[in-house]
Every structure is written in C-alpha cells, then in structure tokens.
Specification:
The strands form 4 sheets. Strands 4-5-3-6-7-10 form a 6-stranded mixed sheet, with helices on both faces. A two-stranded antiparallel sheet has the order 1-2. It is elongated and about 85 Å long. Helix 1 runs parallel beside helix 10, helix 9 packs antiparallel against helix 10 and helix 14 crosses helix 16. It folds into 2 domains: 204 residues, P-loop containing nucleotide triphosphate hydrolases (Rossmann fold, 3-Layer(aba) Sandwich), CATH 3.40.50; 149 residues, no CATH class. The protein contains 16 helices and 12 strands. By secondary structure, it is α/β, with parallel strands linked by helices. The relative contact order is 0.12. Helices cover 49% and strands 12% of the residues. It holds the Pfam family DUF697.
Length: 384
C-alpha cells in the first residue's frame, strides 16, 4: 500500500515487506537433525545456537513416533529420539524407519547436517549409538558428535578451561575408538565437539558452541550455507558479510538513478531502492519486522528513513550540495543508511533494543554527516 506523503508524491511502502519475503524465499531453510535420548540437552542446545525455544514453537509436520519436526522461515529441526531400549527392532532399523519417514517429505524438508548428541559423562558410545551413526553416514548425512552438558573446569592459575579426567578419557577414546578386544572401530562422525549451554553454576553462555556453529557451516551443503548463517545467532560477522554486498548494490543502483541529478522533490524515487535494501538486510538478520510493527508504523518508518526525507535531512548538512541529489550523494546516502540499518538489525537480532521503539532507536543510530562524507570519499577512491 502507498503512503501519502504530505511533502511530495506517494511512497510505496511495500518495497520493504516484499524484499524481506523474496529474500527469505531465496535463502530457503536450513534443516538440522538432532539425534539423542530425552534429557541429553537437545532443546537447550537449539536455544543457545539459534535463539529458539522449540517447545513454544509447537510441532510442525506429522511424522512418526520418535520423530518431531519444528520449523520457522529459516530453520527446521528434526528431533529424532535415540534408540528405544527393549524394542525388538534393531537400532539401525529404527533409525532407518525414521529417515524413510523424513525422506517422504518434500525437498525443502530434507536434512542438511546431523548433531548426534551424547552426554559427556558417558564412558563409551553404545552399540546402538554406533549402529545409528553408521546408518546416518550410509544415507550421506554428515554427522557431528556433540558431547553435551560438559562440566568445564577453570584452572585458577592459568585461567584455561579443561574437563574432568573421565571426560578427557572419553574424548580420547572417541578420537581413536577401539572395541573391548582392542580392535579399531569405524564410527563415521566427522568431528567431536564438546559443549555446554551454561557453566557448572547454571549461568553464563556456555562453551564450545562457536566450534559447533563453525563445523556445522563447513559440513552444510553449499545450497544451505546462507540459510544456516541466517538461522544461527552466534556469529554476527557472517551476517555482515552477507549484508554488505546488498548495501553496495543498492548504493550503485541509487547512484544510477541519480545520474541526471534529482531535485529534492523527486528524491522519493530512491525510496524503493533503499527500502528494498533494508528489507533484504532484515531477512539476513532473521527479523520479521512486519510482525514487530503494525502496518501503519512500518509505513511511517519508511517515510521517515527513505527517499525525500532522507535526502532532505542530509542535503542540509553537506556543504555545497545544493538542492539536487547527484549520483555521488545518492550512492553515499544509501550506503551510509545501509550500514546504520545493519547496526539496528544487529541490535534487534540480539534483543538489545525494543522493536516497538524502532523509530526512536533509528534517531540514535541514523548515519551522521561524517558517515555520508566517508562514503563519498570511498566512492571517489573506488572510481580511480
């Protein structure tokens, strides 16, 4: 819907929402399978890495006993129970049945990476664990063996963190597994990651999660890597790397639109470019802004930060800019706005600002004269 601007032409505020929706569709969804028995800490792990409490999301697809699917736009979680003790069905066959049920769904639901979760205080993998890991590997699924609930011990002298002797012995065995007779075992997990979502006192941010995120990205199929970067909430630099090409493209498009200098009254034509940029960046930060703000608030926000309003606010600050927006100014304004919006998205993404106060927060983080001047200089240097 177009928002009537009292100072000029109508502003199409749909650009932001459409860009967010299109970006979500393009990036797709990352589907993670987490295998492990009840109480191993699967939900805590998901919450720590992805910032989702799947118990509140509710179930997704109807699957089968022992398997649940939870999803939103960027993340799908296949929660697969461990081996059911006492079952007459062998563990690998149990898992095979689960994987067959998953495979029956459409391609957008298929597993990218598996976290096979085992509590750190276990001494060995059971025969059932080994059979299930082999079955996952036989399906071509990369498996990360995740030791959960690790009790990290901090050395009071060096400050370094370590683990108890029994956990250390378990890890040594995992790195070179042998059976009771001393014969080597082939257990095809790709890597062992030690994790905790809290310290021994139930506080803090845990340990090993960064390694888990890095390894998961490395093992994800190429087509799913961006979806994983969006879904995870621990590595903000990955999101910045995705956002900056979008900012650069928008700046170039704005400069192209102002090849023939635009009177300020016509600068509203830059708004769709700028709002599209902002919508795409919002998708990268996994923000559903249209649910955080009412339609009217979102439209009003767009009027305040894009097009003519943006140009007018900066032309007053740039010496010699006059009353027209040339290519250099249009590009610099858009680039600086993109960088500021990226900062806002990070703060929204990490819960550091209230989305209901987005317009107030924008006033704090909106690009300054120096930000725009810096972008002008960067554009000149790039053209040499």
């Amino acid at each position: 819907m177009a928002k009537k601007n009292a100072d000029g032409p109508d502003l199409d505020d749909k650009a932001f929402v459409q860009a967010t929706s299109e970006a979500r569709s393009r990036y797709g969804r990352f589907n993670l399978a987490i295998v492990g028995s009840s109480g191993v800490g699967k939900s805590s792990l998901v919450n720590a890495v992805f910032g989702r409490d799947w118990a509140k999301v509710g179930r997704g697809l109807p699957v089968t006993r022992g398997v649940q699917f939870y999803s939103d736009d960027s993340l799908g979680i296949w929660d697969v129970e461990g081996f059911e003790i006492g079952s007459p069905i062998p563990p690998d066959q149990q898992l095979r049945n689960h994987l067959d049920a998953i495979a029956a769904h459409s391609g957008e639901h298929q597993i990218s990476v598996v976290w096979y979760c085992v509590k750190a205080n276990d001494d060995r993998l059971t025969p059932a664990d080994i059979a299930m890991i082999r079955e996952l590997d036989a399906r071509g699924l990369p498996v990360i063996l995740v030791l959960t609930k690790v009790d990290w011990i901090k050395n009071p002298i060096t400050g370094q963190r370590g683990v108890a002797k029994d956990v250390e012995a378990f890890v040594d065995w995992l790195n070179d597994p042998v059976d009771e007779a001393g014969a080597r075992l082939h257990i095809p997990y790709r890597r062992v990651i030690l994790t905790s979502t809290r310290d021994r006192h139930g506080k803090g941010k845990g340990h090993g999660l960064g390694d888990l995120v890095t390894e998961t990205l490395a093992l994800a199929p190429e087509r799913d890597k961006d979806a994983f970067r969006i879904a995870q909430r621990l590595n903000l630099p990955w999101k910045r790397e995705m956002a900056r090409p979008i900012i650069a493209a928008a700046a170039a498009a704005a400069a192209g639109a102002a090849t023939v200098p635009l009177p300020v009254s016509d600068a509203v034509t830059l708004a769709p470019i700028q709002l599209t940029m902002m919508g795409r960046i919002a998708a990268i930060y996994d923000l559903e802004v249209k649910t955080m703000l009412s339609a009217g608030a979102l439209a009003q926000f767009g009027v305040q930060v894009a097009g003519r309003a943006l140009a007018t606010s900066f032309l007053k600050l740039i010496p010699g800019a006059g009353i027209v927006v040339n290519a250099a100014v249009a590009g610099a304004l858009t680039a600086a706005t993109g960088e500021s919006w990226m900062k806002i998205c990070e703060l929204l993404h990490t819960g550091k600002i209230d989305p209901r106060k987005l317009d107030q927060e924008w006033a704090k983080y909106a690009p300054s004269f120096m930000d725009v001047a810096r972008k002008l200089v960067e554009r000149r240097v790039t053209k040499r």
